[in-house]
Amino acid sequence: MNYLKITKYIYLAIGFIMVYDAATKWNENPKPWLSVVLAGLAFFTFFFRSKFAKKFEDRRNPNNQNGAKPNNP
Predict the structure, then answer these.
(1) Which of 8, 32, 35, 58 could form a cystine bridge with 49, CB 3.0-4.6 A?
(2) C-beta atoms surrounding 15 within 10 Å
(3) Rounded to whole angstroms, how far apart are CA atoms 71 and 40?
(4) Is residue 39 classed exposed, middle or buried when 0-12, 13-18 and 19+ CB atoms within 10 A define those classes?
(5) Nearest-angstrom CA–CA distance, 50 and 65
(6) Pick the residue with more confidence: 48 or 1?
(7) What are the pLDDT digits (tens) for 14-41?
(8) Tally of CA atoms within 13 A in the half-sphere of 3 that contains its CB
(9) Exposure of 3 by Cβ count < 10 A (0-12 exposed, 13-18 middle, 19+ buried)?
(10) Distance between alpha carbon 42 and the CA centroid of its chain, in Å?
(11) pLDDT value, residue 67
(12) Confidence (pTM)
C-alpha cells in the first residue's frame, strides 16, 4: 500500500514536466495544447488522490477529529 502514497507524487512530477514542455514550445505552431491538457489532468489527479487518501485515512483512524463514526465491520 505504500506505493499508492508515492504514485501521487509521480503525477505531480508529470504535471510539472508537461508545464515545462508547454512553456518551451509555446511560440511554435501549432500550440502545445496537448501538453497543457495533460498537465491539468496530472495536477487534477494529484489533488484528487490526495483528497481521497486523506478521507480514507480519516475513515480508518478510530480517533478521528471530525466527529464522524468510523465504519468498523
Answers:
(1) 8
(2) 19
(3) 34
(4) buried
(5) 18
(6) 48
(7) 999 999 999 999 999 999 999 999 999 9
(8) 0
(9) exposed
(10) 6
(11) 54
(12) 0.73
